[in-house]
Amino acid sequence: MTLSEEDYIKAIYHLSQIDNKSVATNAIAEQMKTKPSSVTDMVKKLSEKSLVNYKKYQGVSLSEKGRLVALSIIRKHRLWEVFLVDKLNFSWDEVHEVAEQLEHIKSDALIDKLDAHLGFPKVDPHGDPIPTKDGTFKKSIKKLISELPVLSEGVCVGVNDSSASFLKFLDKNKIALGDTFKILDREEFDGSVSISTRSGTIRISEQIASNLYLEISDTE
Amino acid sequence: MTLSEEDYIKAIYHLSQIDNKSVATNAIAEQMKTKPSSVTDMVKKLSEKSLVNYKKYQGVSLSEKGRLVALSIIRKHRLWEVFLVDKLNFSWDEVHEVAEQLEHIKSDALIDKLDAHLGFPKVDPHGDPIPTKDGTFKKSIKKLISELPVLSEGVCVGVNDSSASFLKFLDKNKIALGDTFKILDREEFDGSVSISTRSGTIRISEQIASNLYLEISDTE
DNA sequence: AAATAAATTTAGGCAAACCTAAAAAATTGT
DNA sequence: ACAATTTTTTAGGTTTGCCTAAATTTATTT
Ligand SMILES: [Mn+2]
Ligand SMILES: [Mn+2]
Ligand SMILES: [Mn+2]
Ligand SMILES: [Mn+2]
């Protein structure tokens, strides 16, 4: 598989996670920063290789084979992110671009040994689960703060938007994965939310709330 | 720079180290496992970019700019080799292929942090020196065993041939970098050499002797 | 149910990196 | 010196991944 094919497979995987429908050509083009006509070319090729199911004008979805390829690339991407943060002291907002390259290195032995070296991590620096070698992985039961009712309590386990600017914002406001939050109150007017943390109570905008995942520890 | 351009630059660098003449098209083709006509294409492109000096039919040599590019790729290659052996427990005969890929990852921060993580190593697992960031590096005064006179003594610091089969041979015969050897005797007939090691005296063929470097500690 | 708009595909091209076959230049042998 | 051989370059193609412009299909309005 070429680097480009791998990135397309990964893009299709991520887009199909959003809702469970087949993925539109334009959506892939936007994600991959190419033109729709280029996407059509590539989708045809992936279809020939049985990595995707494709019917003209009907959008595209990953085949089982394609899904396993996607998970293996995501596994590599996330393991490298752990390496960059844990071993090389990168901050979590700096790792994406480099991991985007490292995920394409071809060597099964490499990724197994890297996994061992890192102590078989279960999640990456952004709280996203790392698929196992055989392509299984547990989606945690996590919810966006914006989708949780008032008085919910839970551990912050992930981000929706992992852009450097958002991650830097979190650092500046002392919000980190692993912190326990309680939703105290939600403002009708603008959807902003008041949450209590170890270090006090803060108010976050709807935009922030819709980009932070909590793993809810039963509120009872 | 593309991956392919980088590999060409590296090949030209290595070939020009052998003797100090300009490098022949056919030699590059052999090294790169392509056809001479492809080499001509690429050399023209590198020449446009002022990375090599090239005149038709006259062979090619690296410009100063090209030399620095070569050294930066070699630096990355060798640092990754150290990482693979020291941190991921690869054996020294397994690392070349993966390092061949890793050397092309683009990120200055990555290579600086990797260097620090490894403790700023001076040589790679095959005893080859690691160029510094600014492209200087010390060629050690090392000589092939086949070129040294009888009774020379020194530390084994490098290999000429780093193919997996040769490295495996060394492991099997308990020859490792850092070992101290003394050349006891050389057979006129076949060039084979008798050397004393910590673990006793062994006889090595001319072919082996011409692939092992010693750093000679003055014999006086 | 048209008409309009949006999404998607097709057609035709381009650059990178390779190829084969043929031509040209350099080297070697006599 | 000049014929034969070797090396190198040129000419013309291929594949991959991208592009623009035009055609086609599907979706949305009116
Ligand atoms: Mn990628
Ligand atoms: Mn991540
Ligand atoms: Mn390489
Ligand atoms: Mn090496």
Describe this structure in words.
- 2 copies of one chain form a homodimer.
- The first copy, chain A, has helices spanning 3-18, 25-32, 36-48, 64-87, 96-102, 108-117, 164-172, 206-209, and strands spanning 52-54, 60-62, 142-144, 153-159, 180-186, 193-197, 200-204, 212-216.
- With 220 residues, chain A is of the alpha+beta class.
- Among the domains of chain A are: 3-62, Winged helix-like DNA-binding domain superfamily/Winged helix DNA-binding domain (Arc Repressor Mutant, subunit A, Orthogonal Bundle), CATH 1.10.10; 142-216, Ferrous iron transport protein A (FeoA) (SH3 type barrels, Roll), CATH 2.30.30.
- At the A-B interface, helix 5 and helix 6 of A face helix 5 and helix 6 of B.
- Bound molecules: manganese (II) ion (4 copies).
- The site of one manganese (II) ion has 6 residues of chain B, from helix 4.
- Chain A binds a DNA duplex (30 and 30 nucleotides) through helix 3.
Please supply descriptive tags for the structure shown above.
17% strand; two-stranded antiparallel sheet; manganese (chains A, B); homodimer; transcription regulation (chains A, B); DtxR_MntR_Metal-Reg (chains A, B); six-stranded antiparallel beta sheet; alpha+beta; 8 strands; Arc Repressor Mutant, subunit A; 41% helix; Fe-transptr_FeoA-like (chains A, B); 8 helices; DNA-binding; binds manganese (II) ion; repressor (chains A, B)
